[in-house]
Specification:
With 108 residues, this protein is mostly helical. It is 63% helix and 7% strand. The chain has five helices and three strands. It has a three-stranded antiparallel β-sheet with strand order 1-3-2. Helix 2 crosses helix 5 and helix 3 crosses helix 4. The longest helix has 26 residues.
Length: 108
């Protein structure tokens, strides 16, 4: 691929990413959630329950980052977090979220 085509491809990809970012900001503005928080809602919607450690691995973030994102969603009423009574070492399992959270991931 010559330099001119590579630059054109890069410019096109950059424009698409900017459009996606603007669309995300418009669609999710009422809930004031980050892309990571939005991704978490989709993960839990698809899997029903998920431990914080599994979530962190899937998102490729540290456990504290996943915990902070989940805690923010809990505070917003979009997610509920429960402790595992069988294993106290786990930080908890994120369960299917509130109707407000379910609505959030169904909008497209």
């Amino acid at each position: 691929m010559d330099q001119e085509k590579a630059e054109a491809l890069f410019d096109a990809a950059f424009r698409v990413l900017r459009m996606m970012a603007r669309q995300f900001a418009r669609d999710r503005a009422p809930w004031h959630i980050t892309p990571t928080q939005y991704h978490i809602l989709y993960l839990i919607r698809d899997r029903r329950t998920l431990t914080l450690m599994d979530m962190a691995k899937h998102l490729q973030v540290s456990a504290p980052t996943a915990t902070r994102a989940v805690d923010a969603l809990v505070q917003k009423g979009l997610l509920c977090k429960e402790r595992d009574p069988q294993d106290r070492r786990t930080c908890g399992t994120c369960q299917i979220f509130s109707s407000r959270g379910r609505c959030q991931t169904q909008r497209r």
